[in-house]
Specification:
Blueprint (H helix, E strand, L loop, with lengths): L4 E6 L6 H14 L5 E5 L5 H11 L8 H23 L4 E5 L2 H11 L4 H10 L8 E6 L2 H7 L13 H15 L5 E5 L4 H17 L1
Parallel strand pairs: 1-3, 1-4, 2-3, 4-5
The protein binds adenosine-5'-diphosphate and magnesium ion.
Magnesium ion binds next to helix 1.
Length: 206
């Protein structure tokens, strides 16, 4: 029996994270696994959802990248202490985004220094490492095309250049970390699902 079953789905906006989280939960239920907690970042607790709204709204003032960073980590700490840490031994936790998003968006997208992220990781005592990270890699032009009819939040309104930089950083980390499974999410959804199913199946039987 595995101790932890913490699965994270990552990728830029429009890569298919929500769709794939739904699919993972569908699969687990098909396999008669029902002790599942679904969450997302930023958010996942009452307070963290309030912080999510603060982050996603637009304002008539410049939203400092460091303010954004601190809010993201405040929300992550709430989620870790209230949901993830107390439940990780007993539940499958499926999260739409986790700390890899901070590396990709804050370092790759915003230009925050890596040492500042590392400091915050330590400061919030984030010692929970996911068992599987599925990174849905998509060309930003395709990702943004998929969400073009969505009522976009402040981050989703960022430029192609921004998402290109975010994607580059995702790939830089994922290519150097065997724990992160890269899926070509430019592919049609049934192919993506098949790959996700294989990853999940291998994890369960290992
Ligand atoms: N591989 C795919 N091919 C085509 N369309 C996709 C694919 N994955 C997701 N979609 C569609 O793209 C849109 C955005 O997907 P979503 O899961 O909401 O992405 P995210 O949560 O990463 O922003 C949805 O309409 C979804 O049905
Ligand atoms: Mg989503």
């Amino acid at each position: 029996m595995k101790l932890n079953k913490f699965i994270v789905v990552e990728g830029i906006d429009g890569s298919g994270k929500t769709t794939i989280c739904n699919y993972i939960i569908y699969l687990l239920k098909c396999w008669n696994i029902n002790n599942i907690i679904r969450t997302h970042e930023p958010g996942g607790t009452i307070l963290a959802e309030k912080i999510r709204n603060l982050i996603k709204n637009s304002y008539k003032e410049f939203f400092s990248y460091k303010t954004e960073l601190l809010l993201l980590y405040a929300a992550r700490l709430q989620l870790l202490d209230n949901i993830i840490k107390p439940n990780i031994k007993d539940y499958w936790i499926i999260s739409d985004r986790y700390d890899l998003s901070s590396y990709a968006y804050q370092i790759g997208g915003r230009g925050i220094q890596k040492k500042d992220i590392l400091f915050l990781q330590k400061f919030i005592n984030n010692n929970i490492i996911p068992n599987i990270v599925i990174y849905l890699d998509v060309n930003p032009l395709i990702g943004l095309q998929r969400i073009k009819n969505r009522n976009k939040d402040r981050i989703e309104k960022e430029s192609i250049k921004f998402f290109t930089n975010v994607r580059k950083y995702y790939l830089k980390i994922a290519n150097n970390n065997n724990m992160i499974k890269i899926i070509d999410a430019n592919n049609n959804l049934s192919n993506v699902k098949l790959l996700v199913k294989k990853i999940l199946f291998n994890f369960i039987k290992s």
